[in-house]
Amino acid sequence: MKTIKVKKLTKEAFAPYGEVLTIEGREAGGNPASHLWYPQVVVIDNPTSINLMKVIPHEFVLKDFEAHDHTTENLLAMDGDLIVGMAPAGDLKAENVEAFYIPAGFGISLKPSVWHAVPFAVGKEVMSACIFKNNTSHDDIYFASIPEELGLTM
pTM of the full predicted structure? Predict the structure, then answer.
């Protein structure tokens, strides 16, 4: 099985797919004695749903992907680290697949039509939040697979 190396999540490396959701480099508001507030990290101009997903550890192998044409998908790693495989919008090709390591407390905002796999939990079950236009998982979801499985290496 061919393998690809999981990449560190940086704004530059992730830019072709969307945005990194982090407080790094953002100015905080709020009351420093009690909280730091980072407003509008992502703005969604549609009726929106917040979906919770418990990611169960499973083999780091990529084959099946999905995409959404009419919304961004925002994924937050809440209490553990995740790895997400993805490929640019358009024809899904194995040679274009990349994978990113998303540390707990970080997230990603995928551009519409970017192919992505179900996340992989690193070391333990991980609670995550997936935020997108309401009903996306029912009326704006497309599936495709690459011909051969791709393994992931750290």
Answer: 0.92
